[in-house]
Amino acid sequence: MAENPSLTPQEQVINEKTYKYPSEEHFAFLYVDEEKKNAIRTIYAVFNDIKNILYTQTESNVARLKLSWWKDTIGRLYASEDKYHNHPLSQALLPLIRRYDLKPQFFLNIIESVEMDLTHHRYLDFQSLNRFFTLQNGSMFCLISQVLGPTTPNTIKYAQKLGEAKQYIDTIASMGLDASQGRIYVPMDYLREHGVTANHFLNATPEATQGTLKEKLIKDATKKLNEASEQLEEMDGSIATQIKSMTALGHMGRAKLKKIKKGDPFKNEIALSALQMLMISSKTWLRM
């Protein structure tokens, strides 16, 4: 990405690593006030920097060293050892930790999820796969909820369940892309239950693409979205309004599931159009 001399080094790195237009995140957080939007963009930049270690480092030892650096950096950030923060992302993150009281465990969970991914190319059952989703996207959504509104047990539980559901949906939508990289984010016992082998999945053969496996995954993801919605219904209305950008992401997840039902995620990564995302976000903000 070409450097913009009008931006600080922090802003340059955040722009490079955060969510992009026309992503679901761009439209979901479109109407959030600028201060909170910039905080969310910074947290996403940190999240992506950690998560993408898996994809940018071909040597696992190097990847683990980078994860160790992030783990050490998070510890120093929370110890307020300002003199050690010479990385643009850690410099940008420090004031947000103080302003929004971001919990360190959520960052450490994200690091742990990438460590899991370095070790496991397969997940034996739904419980182990869901733990990965909880640690990664669940923790990410919890951090975002802390920026958007007051931290309550309900908002944290809602954010975690919504994050899990959203990551599940996104992995179904990109099964073909993940398979091309040798990764399977489907429980191995699901494959056996539906007569699909790992080779069927990785090679996108008819056994994987035309059977009942996709229906099972869609059913699971819908159930997880419904569980998140139940948490939202129990929330105080004023608090629910403050985190409605996250609710917009949930609505986008439901819309994506409809596209997955009709499409083939082994042939093309399933995605919503910019117009669809804008409409969903706008309706969510107007209704709540």
TrEMBL record:
SUPFAM superfamilies: Terpenoid synthases
UniProt xrefs under InterPro entries: Isoprenoid_synthase_dom_sf (IPR008949), Squ/phyt_synthse (IPR002060)
Superkingdom assignment: Bacteria
Gene Ontology molecular functions: transferase activity, transferring alkyl or aryl (other than methyl) groups
Matching Pfam families: SQS_PSY
Xref: PANTHER family: BIFUNCTIONAL LYCOPENE CYCLASE/PHYTOENE SYNTHASE (PTHR31480)
Name under which the protein is recorded: Putative squalene/phytoene synthase
Native species: Taylorella asinigenitalis 14/45
